[in-house]
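Hey, resending since the last one bounced:
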Amino acid sequence: MAVPVPVSVDAAPRGIDLGDPAFWRLPEEARAVAFARLRGRSGPVGFTDRATGRRCWALVRHADVTAASRAPEVYLSGPGVTAPEPARWVRAVFGDPMVNLDDPRHADLRRVVGRAFTPRLLAEVERDIRETAAELVDRLERERPADFVTAVAAELPFRVICTMTGVPPEQRRRILARTDAAAPSGAARRGLRVPGRGLRALAATQLTVAALGRERRRRPTGDLISALVTADVDGRRLNSRELGAFFSLLLVAGVETTRNALAHGLHLLTVHPEQRALLLGDLDAHLGGAVEEVVRCSTPIVQFRRTVAVDHRLSGIRLAAGDKVVLFYGSANRDEAVFRDPDAFDITRSPNPHLGFGGGGPHFCLGAHLARQQMRVLLRELFTRLPGIRSTAAPETVPSSLGHRVRSLPFTF
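The structure tokens again:
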């Protein structure tokens, strides 16, 4: 008689392997079903990361992702929030972006950056967002491009960030090409990623930014880079390496997340005509809710990682110091315990405590307000002037365990 093999209560159900790159090549619908099964477990779910061989814990429920996000003394970002973690020499050369820092370094850097966003700068950014959105829609009407991502979704956040930071127009195309090369795809394939191309792009970008920083120290111009390199917050300002790391994070995270949310948003409002009609019927009443629901449903960042600092228990599961936990924001945003009918796209959803910008705590997205602002302004401009705008096919997405990236989105109006 066959002896049944005991199954650990913390193991993933048969057929679901979050550490297998093949899982991330499955259709989105299949992955959503898998995560729904995982949320049926009582706590964190164990799996092995094939790329690193490390045992990891998947946090798939809203409560667990929130708890880990708000306990930074237990769940550390410092070793790195993506896999594989950055090598020591990479960190020594390029510096650490804030997303990979713990307090007190994280709080120190965030305080300097936060002080740089003065009321005057924020007012200028708001004006630039409106002007850029209007200009992009003008160009849509004039040129009628075929791809929404390259024409609008990627262009708006990139131009806004470049203007905000003070990147000269003649340098922007080169920086955009480098950003695409350096963007962490979390590519779903076996073995270690070869980082050469991305690191070369990162190095070139940081050299450009360092030169801009030196120029702004001599002659400040009122932009964000000027503020960061001349700020005096308790005698603290950003050095060249810190400036480069912050700028790279701003480009990759700020441009990528907003670009992808905008592209997913147009498609969601196309395939849910009743929600689209509701939005167009009263933009003032529903635009804010539409933005929040787009972020919840699209969740531009799929996951970030943390390293457990001390032995403890989370939702009944024992976690040991040194364990890796993976915060799956997209799964948390479909948690049936928090969201009624979580797979529905509902722009009137209230409350909507999604984790699209993180689960709270010190690493809550610094650019959340900017992303929301860009989405509101652009959607208003599009649907006011081009009410017939819609996608004509599903987004072409990039298989990834890190970001919900849209490569292209055909559209018409």
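The two ends are 66 Å apart (CA to CA).

Sorry for the duplicate.
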